[in-house]
Amino acid sequence: MNLLSYLDVVLALLIVGVASTTIAARDLFAAVVGYVAYGLLLAFVWIRLYAPDVALTEAAVGSGVTGVLLITAGKRLGALKNAAPEVQPAFTFKLLTGMLAALVAGALAAAILLLPDPPPSLAPEAAAAADGAGAGLGNPITAVLMSYRSFDTMLEKMVLILAVVGVWSVGADKAWGSAPAELRQPKATAPMIFLAQMLAPVGVLIGIHIFWTGANAPGGAFQGGALLAAMWMVIMMAQLVKMPRVDAQWLRVVLVSGPAVFLIIGLAGEFTAGSFFAYPPSLAKPIILFIEAFMVLSIAAALPMLVAGPPSERSDP
Amino acid sequence: MTLLDLFSIAAIGVGTFFFFAGTVGLLRFPDSLTRLHALTKADNLGLGLVALGLLPRADSALSALKLIVIWALVLLSGSSTAQLIGRALRRGRK
Amino acid sequence: MTPSVLAGLVGASLVGLGLYGLILHPHPLRKLLAFNLIGNGVFLVFGIVARRGAAAGFRFDPVPQAMVITGIVVAFAASALAVALILRLSAEGNRVTLDPNAWTRPNDGDAK
Amino acid sequence: MAGLETTTPGGYLLVLAILLPLAGIVVSFTPGGRHAERIALYSTPFGFALALAIAFCVGRAGKPIVYTIGGLPPPLGIALRADGISAVMLIAAAVIVTAAAFYARAKFATPDGVRESRGPMTFWIMLQAIWAALAIIFVGGDLFNLYVALELLTFAAVPLVCIDGRPETLAAALRYLLFALFGSISYLLGVALFYGAHGTLDISLLAQRVQATPVVWTAASLMTAGLLAKTALFPVHLWLPPAHANAPAAASAVLSGLVVKGSFFLTLRLWFYVLPALPTDNIAAVLGWLGSAAVIVGSIIALRQARLKLLIAYSTVAQIGYLFLVFPLAAGAQTWSAIGWSAGLMQVLAHAFAKAAMFFSAGLLAEALGHDQIAKLGGAARALPLTFLTIALAGLSLMGLPPSGGFSAKWLMLQASIASGQWLWTIPILAGSLLAAGYVWRILAPALSEGQVSLESLPKRSQELIALALTIIALALGFAPQTFFDFLELGRPVVAGQS
Questions:
Q1: Which of A180, A211, C14, C81 has its CA 20 to 30 A from that of D139?
Q2: Which whole-number Å values give the CA distances from D13 to A260, D68, D82, D142, D491, in the listed order?
Q3: Considering the entire predicted model, what is its pTM?
């Protein structure tokens, strides 16, 4: 065992330890904070698994934006002062649940250890297709997301739209159309404004860079879009821009642009390349980048809207 | 071993020490403001020295620039959030 | 122990921990945290499968990794919907519970 | 590479059947308001025509029709396949979604004076989303693609439950969401293991490759557990009654009639299409026992309900139980397994139509009376004859009395269980019918009795007729000819030598 292996073991123990505290913590807020820390640690595991794209996504969406969502939720729940003491479940119930959980975890661990050797893989096929359907994209993950499994990616954008409508639908009837509650209340402070002014331009540039390099290197529409989303949230927290109204036409157009462009180009594939969701080989790379540009916009708009929650009556002018 | 290697080792070593000290401070200091103080030392000095030590080893001007940008970004967000946390603490005390 | 095997054990533990929390915690936000732990464990299994599938000059099989990216975004959307429901529910009363009967007003017979 | 699958004639219809409602969502979202309603309504005939065209193509080809998306065949690409059951389920979904859309026009019209309002906007978008998700589930050929479809279905169904915003509906929706999320993640874990074991997620490629290894068993169990939580099979049925009983009638009909069938359909796909080569006797028996328990427990709880919509929702729990008898009754390649298969699918269809009609009628009743307390229904049948005729006829199918689809289903189940020597299954089948007669009678008896009810409003005749039309389909299924059952067998992999 070399040094790296020891570090791996320490990382693994740390993750399981922090995850246990989020489950065991008595306090809701402590559990949430533990979860965010745990999410960042998890990004390291993804690096160790040679998955930089996933590590970026995990850090940006899985830990970052989810963290903002959960902390905002924890704060709003706390502000309501109604986190009534939880009823502790009976000991036998705890024991049985623990046994069930251990059984499932054990079976899963066994299954993972029993995975066949040599492992099956689509990597050779993906490599062989890299020049054709892979469209000359240097990043095989972008090729999978945007070409071989573009149908999944398009559907997942639809899921985001539905989630936005679902979150909005939870609001009150009379609030419909107005803006969600501000992320930060009551007033932005000077350091927050300073941070937003300094960070946002750089962050936007980096977001666009991550999306652009995603064709050939780790990165892509998801990670770039998530970074842009984070910057928008920072600007909104500093109250440099207002939370948009949910019936604003521009917001709806931006939200829907990713799946809409994807759908139109997918349909056009039948006529330009002989099959739905196929691209003409000579133009594949520019077309994919074109679709991804709109996906970045959609994601950058959808994530903050999902964090912000349903339209609120208080934010009415 | 060149002089640059020695420089790298020294800078990264000192940087790591600041991280260590910052972490000890975070765990041992009595209240939030002093813990914050320890943390910002680790962020600013520790990361700055590590980045400085890595600079000679960067394989291109672009990746050297990236290192500097990373440090500057952490400096920016670290100092701002420290301010925010500090203010929140002061509000809480009143 | 290779990183994949280690990550496999971490993944399995996360699924177990999450399942425990999901069943046991009465508070829906805690259940949501637990669900996210399970989700991460599942994604790690995909990650291991991808790492094991290294072949043909790739250090990983890109297909499962792409699936994880899709999965992470979907899981976030799910968390957002759940948080919206939890917050709205907590604004309605002084205890957040999943038991619909607890919310039914006495003498509530109408289906409107 | 030789032997890769290619698109068959008519395959493009499968993509269109999915993209039509998806395009509807995209186009509805931006202008919103009344446009969402119009787009949803106008797209229904096209969706129905597409479903019919797919059935026609499958029937003419005599085998499944296939579309490889992007011209990229599995394992790297995603294939869509429609066989007999896909085509029939697509038609059923088109009919029920269309009925729900026209039924819902009364409640979910955007009110005058506003450009857009919350309830209608949510309803029309989510209805199209449910349709799209079901279309993918019925024709999807890739397990991960089906996962995304399952999530799409969840995100569409949950907001419908709490569309009227009362706290109990929010609690029901949240509970439903947590169960559904657990279901999806458990399913996804199984998907990961399948990929790790066999390097593909395509259903027909997997079917050629799977062996009875511990990894495959773990994967299949996890996926089944997840799907059962989503289908609300006893004992994970707790989320269903409050969710289905509290949603508005048009949504309840779609949720009870179609949405739970989506995850059941995937359970069928898993065991009969992905794993036909495995010795599944024990699993089939477990599913059969759980189904039997659901029939008995669900019916008994239904008998004790005070509210009509809750009674109907518990009846769904019971009728779902019947579906799972298909696993022991259609296993393997015996002469009786074809009968069991027909019975299971007939139960899916008969329940979908009868239950949708039942919820539609219950909604009309609640609107007309201002409540849905069973004890206060005295004399209601005379005031609302058409609505109660629908309830009585739909009840006929739920009980399994001839002539009805429900009767055919239960009769075929009895035949299959006797022919296969598994006579034990006849007990829950018959007991369930008796109990169903009990709970249907509990609705009808007070309604037919003497009494005076005061009507707050009269139901719309068009809504009553929509409910009646669905009931008539449920009854007409009882006259399905043998060609219909042969059609259901199209594309079903049958492996000889298993029992």
A1: C81
A2: 20, 12, 10, 18, 18
A3: 0.93
